[in-house]
């Protein structure tokens, strides 16, 4: 029960954009399971929020893709942040980025309210902006940056790399639902 209270407390603090929380989970090697739990809960919330338009079939695949995307994104952020844009004091490993970025999905839990008629678009927009802000803080803390702008730079460079990757991936293998 105490672990569950810690978990929910961390989710709330992450959603409040508490930089100290991101430092805490960066240092807590045991928080990886919790970070994965946040990613799963956030993607399930998104799936439930779109169930009236997308159906239940997408929840499982969406959750699986969210976990894969989280791992890929954390690795890209790690490489960009430590190899391309490090500050002198930058010292991080992949696990630190996994944990902090996982918790940056906390604001995505509000996407469950997309199930309310007329709320899907506004809730999705609010959740997306909130999650981006949380991700910037997560990256700044994990990479020990003094500059928030550098963390934004990691996000922008990382997103470009990820977009190029997915364009190439789908160009080679075809888009989902399309015959190969």
Structure description:
With 180 residues, the protein is an all-alpha fold. It has helices at 2-15, 19-27, 32-49, 51-54, 57-84, 94-103, 120-142, 148-173. The chain is 73% helix and 0% strand. Helix 3 (32-49) packs across helix 5 (57-84), helix 5 crosses helix 6 and helix 7 crosses helix 8 (148-173). The longest helix is centred in the middle third of the chain and has 28 residues, at 57-84. The mean pLDDT is 90.
Largest sheet geometry: none
β-strand amount: under 5%
Provide the residue-averaged pLDDT: 90
Helix/strand structural class: mainly alpha
The low-confidence runs, each spanning 5 or more residues with pLDDT under 50, are none
Q: What is the number of helices?
A: 8
Number of separate strands: 0
User: Helix amount, in percent?
Assistant: over 70%
What Rg is obtained from the alpha carbons, in whole angstroms?
17 Å
User: In sequence order, what are the helices and strands, one letter per element?
Assistant: HHHHHHHH
How would you describe the shape? globular
Termini gap: 48 Å
């Amino acid at each position: 029960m105490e672990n569950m209270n810690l978990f929910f407390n961390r989710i709330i603090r992450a959603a409040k954009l508490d930089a100290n929380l991101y430092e805490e989970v960066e240092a807590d090697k045991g928080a990886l399971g919790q970070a994965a739990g946040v990613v799963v809960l956030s993607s399930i919330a998104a799936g439930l929020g779109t169930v009236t338009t997308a159906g239940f079939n997408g929840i499982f695949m969406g959750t699986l893709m969210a976990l894969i995307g989280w791992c890929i994104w954390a690795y890209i952020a790690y490489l960009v942040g430590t190899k391309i844009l490090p500050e002198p004091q930058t010292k991080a490993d992949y696990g630190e980025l996994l944990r902090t970025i996982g918790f940056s999905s906390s604001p995505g839990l509000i996407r469950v309210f997309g199930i309310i008629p007329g709320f899907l678009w506004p809730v999705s927009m609010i959740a997306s902006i909130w999650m981006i802000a949380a991700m910037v803080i997560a990256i700044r803390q994990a990479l020990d940056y003094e500059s928030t702008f550098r963390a934004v730079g990691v996000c922008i460079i990382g997103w470009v790399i990820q977009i190029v990757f997915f364009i190439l991936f789908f160009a080679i293998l075809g888009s989902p639902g399309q015959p190969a």
